[in-house]
């Protein structure tokens, strides 16, 4: 999940019954850009759409239980990270801060290379169907 997708997830979590247009406005992005990022969240089962009762053209966005869990997990990691940042001594020199940030970035890159990758089953199934033709 990209950071931009997480921001959409967070906005949907915080603002119940939000529409795509409202989501785009709130995240200061275009409707088409928000729709592209939202599509992945829909395919991955993090978000669902529900039509408005009196106007079926209007679709409300809601987190699925899976989306609620992921949003909560990411939020908790963020809070833990914020606590860690508050523990950094304020009397560090510029070189010490740069060294710390470089090591932090290196550790993130190592973690990203080693973490399990998630593959969307819908996309993979579609790819397999086209390669069999």
From TrEMBL:
Native organism: Levilactobacillus spicheri DSM 15429
Positions in coiled-coil regions: none
UniProt keyword terms in alphabetical order: DNA-binding, Transcription, Transcription regulation
Listed InterPro entries: HTH_MarR-typ, MarR/SlyA-like, Tscrpt_reg_MarR-type_CS, WH-like_DNA-bd_sf, WH_DNA-bd_sf
Name of the protein: Transcriptional regulator
Domain HTH marR-type residue range list: 1-109
GO molecular function, one term: DNA-binding transcription factor activity
Gene3D superfamilies listed in its UniProt record: Winged helix-like DNA-binding domain superfamily/Winged helix DNA-binding domain
GO BP field: response to stress
Keyword Coiled coil in annotation: no
């Amino acid at each position: 999940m990209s950071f931009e997708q997480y921001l959409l997830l967070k906005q949907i979590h915080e603002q119940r019954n939000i529409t795509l247009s409202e989501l785009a406005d709130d995240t200061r992005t275009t409707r088409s850009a928000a729709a592209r990022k939202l599509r992945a969240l829909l395919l991955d089962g993090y978000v669902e759409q529900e039509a408005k009762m009196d106007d079926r053209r209007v679709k409300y966005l809601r987190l699925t239980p899976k989306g609620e869990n992921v949003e909560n997990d990411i939020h908790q990691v963020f809070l833990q990270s914020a606590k860690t940042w508050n523990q950094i001594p304020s009397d560090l020199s510029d070189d010490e801060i740069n060294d710390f940030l470089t090591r932090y970035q290196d550790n993130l890159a190592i973690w990203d290379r080693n973490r399990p990758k998630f593959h969307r089953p819908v996309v993979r199934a579609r790819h397999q169907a086209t390669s069999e033709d």
